[in-house]
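Tokens for chain A. Residues wanted.
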């Protein structure tokens, strides 16, 4: 889906999708009743097989879209969980390096604070705009942190145990960071979107072939189908890119770590 769609508020996205799908659906119905149905020679007796076809397509399409919606929701939920885990990993690593002797302790804590501020002030706005993959500042900060951490030589068994725990926490942080960056670009493939949109077009298009004497009733039925499909597709769109736009995952877990642990300890 285009990135500009995620830059709108969820309410505006919902209205836009409903209006767009209803316009296409009702325009198609108008054209079908005007140019296609007069060329087909069948009466109201054709409504029964058409109804069966609509039901069959609706069932299969409903199952397909339902499974996609569940998958998208799980992806969104998993992305939110990754954010919490990375923030927790930062907090754990910060506590571990706080046990190091000065000046190593101060240098490592300063780098973790710099990384947390970078995520909040630079990475998150970029992710909301779909540019999360192009930033390189986080990698440079982590490289500097790693260089200083790896050069530390424990002088006592206690420092050796603390250093081992810090290395483990650092590796966890790197893993969650990498998974978050990958998740920024996660979403349904072009093929999946084609299946969704083509299936929606077929589902609504089959209803055009009903023989209904009252065109108002026909338009109402198609409008109801289009509105329902629009809301289902809206739900998929909003959850497909968990880090994009107004409805994207918030950076509050990092802010909590910064405010209640890192800045509070200074």
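Reply:
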């Amino acid at each position: 889906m285009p990135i500009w769609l995620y830059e709108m508020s969820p309410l505006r996205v919902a209205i836009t999708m409903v209006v767009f799908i209803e316009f296409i659906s009702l325009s198609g119905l108008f054209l079908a009743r005007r140019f296609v149905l007069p060329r087909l020679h069948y009466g109201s007796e054709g409504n029964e097989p058409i109804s069966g076809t609509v039901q069959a397509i609706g069932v299969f399409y409903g199952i397909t879209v339902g499974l996609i919606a569940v998958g998208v929701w799980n992806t969104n939920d998993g992305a939110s969980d990754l954010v919490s885990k990375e923030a927790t990993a930062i907090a754990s690593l910060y506590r571990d390096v706080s046990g190091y002797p000065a000046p190593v302790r101060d240098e490592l804590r300063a780098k973790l604070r710099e990384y947390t501020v970078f995520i909040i002030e630079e990475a998150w706005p970029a992710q909301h705009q779909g540019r999360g993959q192009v930033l390189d500042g986080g990698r440079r900060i982590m490289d500097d942190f790693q260089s200083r951490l790896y050069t530390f030589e424990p002088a006592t068994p206690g420092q050796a145990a603390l250093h081992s725990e810090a290395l483990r926490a650092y590796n966890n942080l790197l893993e969650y960071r990498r998974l978050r960056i990958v998740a920024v670009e996660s979403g349904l493939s072009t093929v999946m979107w084609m299946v969704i949109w083509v299936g929606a077009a077929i589902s609504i298009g089959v209803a055009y072939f009903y023989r209904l004497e009252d065109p108002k009733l026909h338009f109402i039925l198609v409008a109801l189908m289009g509105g329902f499909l629009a809301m289902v597709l809206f739900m998929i769109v909003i959850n497909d890119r968990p880090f994009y736009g107004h409805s994207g995952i918030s950076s509050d877990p990092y802010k909590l770590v910064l405010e209640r642990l890192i800045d509070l300890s200074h």
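The mean pLDDT is 91. The longest helix spans residues 47-97.
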